[in-house]
């Protein structure tokens, strides 16, 4: 029975004109910084996958695992049933990151291309109901599953397989953080404090010595008396008049 179900779904999709593509979305390389965070994850771009659907609009579908088995491709993006703002309380899936084949071209990649998609990177439209296709931060660690769906107008024409479950990182509570090495940290703080006090005492002593030397130098210079100015007495000169010659 489990072997027949995927085949039955494939035949049903083909009968409805929906092409099942041999591609499974994958997370980007773990060497990429921040490839999974507490509210985002990074996917490889589906390069060259939709080459037979160049005029279609390609959407990324993000869903909780419970919605995968009976996902309805006919529900259009932008409706309340596919709005980011309603996820995951009132809807189990939303659609975002719409683009065309021009952004997923062949060849698959070059060294100059940035061939990844950051899911959950928009913060300005989290509560904006006018942006139901917002690529907003994921509301919980998940898990989530994703697939790419191509639409011609409102008609689904091609889809990829669903990804494996993607679980985000979980922020640790402060109480759960390891306290190993806390004694070492306390001893380092104590040593740093003692060194700071000793440095302050040394600096104070140096300043005191400088003040003492300065005051001593000033006192020594004050013992030298200034040379007294020579007193100059003023003499009133008396005019000496020639006495008339003694008369003989």
TrEMBL record:
Keyword Ribonucleoprotein: no
Transmembrane domains' residue ranges: 188-213
Coiled-coil region list: none
InterPro entries listed in its UniProt record: Uroplakin-3
Keyword terms, alphabetized: Membrane, Signal, Transmembrane, Transmembrane helix
GO CC, any one term: membrane
Keyword Membrane applies: yes
Cleavable signal peptide: 1-17
Official protein name in the record: UPK3B protein
